[in-house]
Amino acid sequence: MDAVTAPVLDAPALETLVSAAVAAPSVHNTQPWRFRLVPETSVLEVRAAPERALPAIDPQGRALHVSVGAAVFNLRTAARHLGWAPGVRLLPDPAEPDLLAGVRLDEPAPCRVPAVDALYDAIWRRHSARSPFTGPPVPEGVLADFAEAARAEGAELLLPDEEETARLLRLTAEAERRNTVDPAQRAESRRWLREPGAGPDGVPAAALGPQDADGRLPMRDFGALAPERHLAPQRFEARPRIAVLLTRGDGPEDWLRAGLALEHVLLAATVHGVRASLLHQAMEWRFLRWEARDARHGPAFAQMLIRFGYGPEGAPTPRRPAAEVLDG
């Protein structure tokens, strides 16, 4: 049997890897990452881009780490799809806190894995869905697959009952109310709204969603920041299916693992034809984020609320090209 050799890490492969990474979600589509290849070690470094941080919404950098973790998941998935067995190290050098991950690309994958190829294909089709869901409930077996995807990355996906879901939505509504009246948060969010074709980052008008006419499901109200972009309210699903992404710790490595888990869950949802949107508002207020955990499940820290359902695809948001985020 012939020996398996690793793919060539040439310019086209590098562009594919980085393009997959930047397709990951980030709060307000800030894309707070940079990449650098170290040729001597075949390590692709993933670094924070602090100039793209959100100090009002995310003073600790937690959401930035979650976003970068999602990019690392896409990078790892693309590497496996292209034929590598990537080695991922999170926070590899304590002396460089902005170096959040290193992905080593010198070992070949022993064989192709169809499930990995399906996740890779989903990278390019995943978009946040901010409109009402109109289809049947997501089957419990499919939701169990999402929970397993989170566990594979060292996180947990909790599927609360109807009473707990209502409580989480109340927390989200309170966070949304605070976001719209806090001057610093309003100004920061407004800076990331974009006119059509205005740039490769931020939230374009086409991606904005309506508010729930019944006030049951508090989507992020960009219309309150830009009244000229306000959409007419619509009726959302009567029984939203919400999940809570949790980690047992709450430090930088936990946040990165939460990002890996988040993107694994979102891509698994895309493979299943399930739409998803992120309810991050309560994560932006420390005491509301603390309340979002369910003490009945032991010590854990909420990292994201995710809404699942069937309905129309979300509108794509722009991405910076690989050449713009690749150093060296």
Q: What brief labels describe this structure?
A:
four-stranded antiparallel β-sheet; single chain; five-stranded mixed β-sheet; NADH Oxidase; 328 residues
Q: What does this protein look like?
A:
With 328 residues, this protein is an alpha+beta fold. The protein folds into two domains: 11-126, 3-Layer(aba) Sandwich (NADH Oxidase), CATH 3.40.109; 140-309, NADH Oxidase (3-Layer(aba) Sandwich), CATH 3.40.109. The protein has ten helices and eleven strands. The chain is globular. The two termini are 38 Å apart.
Explain the layout of strands and helices:
Layout: H1 11-22, E1 33-38, E2 43-48, H2 62-82, E3 87-90, E4 99-104, H3 114-123, H4 140-152, E5 156-158, H5 162-181, H6 183-191, E6 193-194, E7 203-204, H7 222-225, E8 241-247, H8 252-271, E9 275-279, H9 286-291, E10 301-309, H10 322-325, E11 326-327
Parallel strand pairs: 1-11, 6-7
Antiparallel strand pairs: 1-2, 2-4, 3-4, 5-8, 8-10, 9-10
Helix pairs in contact: 1-2, 2-3, 2-8, 3-8, 4-8
Task: Tell me which CATH architecture of the largest domain applies here.
Answer: 3-Layer(aba) Sandwich
Going by CATH, what is the homologous superfamily of the largest domain? NADH Oxidase
Q: Over all CA atoms, what is the radius of gyration?
A: 19 Å
Euclidean distance between termini CA atoms:
38 Å
Number of strands: 11
Please outline the major beta sheet: 5 strands, mixed
Strand order of the largest sheet: 3-4-2-1-11
Percent helix? 25-40%
Give start-end ranges of low-pLDDT stretches.
none
Secondary-structure-based class equals alpha+beta
What string, H for helix and E for strand, traces the elements in order?
Answer: HEEHEEHHEHHEEHEHEHEHE
**What multimeric state do the chains show?**
single chain
Number of domains: 2
